Amino acid sequence: MTLDIQARTVAHSAAHHHGRGDLANAWQRLRNREPRVRIRNAAHRLGVTELELLLTDPPHRVRMLDPEFQRIYTALSQLGPVMTLARNDQVVHETTGTVGQFTTGSNGNVGFCLGEIDLRAFFRHWAYGVALRDDSASRNRRYSLQFFDRAGAAVHKVFALEETDMAAWHRLVSRFTAVDQRPELEFERPLSRSTDRGGGNVDVEELARDWSALTDIHEFGTVLRRHGICRLHAVELMDGRWCWQLPADSLERLLHAVADTAVPIMAFTANRGLVQIFTGSVHRVRRSGEWINILDERFHLHARTSEIQAIWRVVRPSADGDITSLDCFNAAGDLVLTIFGERRPGHPELPMWRDHMRLLEERYR
Predict the structure, then answer these.
(1) Which residue, 95, 138, 157, 206, is the most exposed by fewest CB within 10 angstroms?
(2) Is 146 exposed, middle or buried (0-12, 13-18, 19+ CB in 10 A)?
(3) How far apart are CA 232 and CA 330, in angstroms?
């Protein structure tokens, strides 16, 4: 769902070419002019990665960690409450809670965590980790663990809270601090996405038969691979059968509707290396400029609706009945946010959730 990456590593470091001191000065000048600038936006404007900007700070503020990501995430359960943040270019997803038992698959490439913090981590894409002490941040955001992919883009961030066990936090950081604190880094260069979505010769009727034969929503990826197409292309081909495009304001309308009727949801936000999930009811839905926001005590969602190119109501059959989701895509065709009604395995989806989704589609007719 994110940019493709070149197979060969390509040096892509302004710090390498111009020196960390020059980059640090440029970063400081930008912060002086715009004290509220986000580091992700600053990195883009300066032509570097977010990780490179962080590493302009000295090691006592930004420590490189050993790339033992599975062991680090297994140890997070010792910290008590934390806030975890996952994002892509259009959506920011923040959940607060205690990290439960973290398990990995047989090959170690995929990690799972269920409970208050609900994650799926794809470690083959992870490359770097740092422990950050940000003296300019508010007290409960001062300490964080931040993880990056091979292109230097942030995959996941874990923030300490006032309730966090800071003694355990500092022990974890000490345990995983790398020996080489400022190595020369090389980043893979993201390639621009092709406008070709694949599957130019898709048998639409065969795709429809495979779609209709689904008994588990997790089989959907297998169907896409079998037909050699991306998710958005499949959705477009099933327009009017299993999928219906919705008006641009549908995400905002849906969030207000589920908040007003106390319908619990599941909100999935993903990037190349991670999926983070919130499950529960939402309450405070607010618009701020380009962003529609959920601002609850234990869950924040920020979606830049001006950059969400297409919104679809997607229905997939299962052994428990049809499962309906709201799928949001950006201009590149990446899935940036998916919302389901809360549902336990073995149970059908909530009738009121289904009604909300039908009403959105009926408005578009």
Answers:
(1) 138
(2) buried
(3) 10
Which residue type, as a one-letter code, is found at position 322?
A: D
Directed axis angle between helix 204-212 and helix 220-227, to 10°?
160
Looking at residue 116, its amino acid is: E
The model's pTM is 0.90
- Residues 327-344: tens digit of each pLDDT: 999 999 999 999 999 998
| Count of alpha carbons within 13 angstroms of residue 329, beta-carbon side | 20
d(CA 301, CA 283): 12
Domains of the chain: 14-81+126-176 (3.40.1570.10), 204-362 (3.40.1570.10)
Distance (Å, rounded) from C-alpha 199 to C-alpha 353? 32
Beta bridge partners of 200: none
Contact between residue 93 and residue 278 where contact means Cβ atoms under 8 Å apart: yes
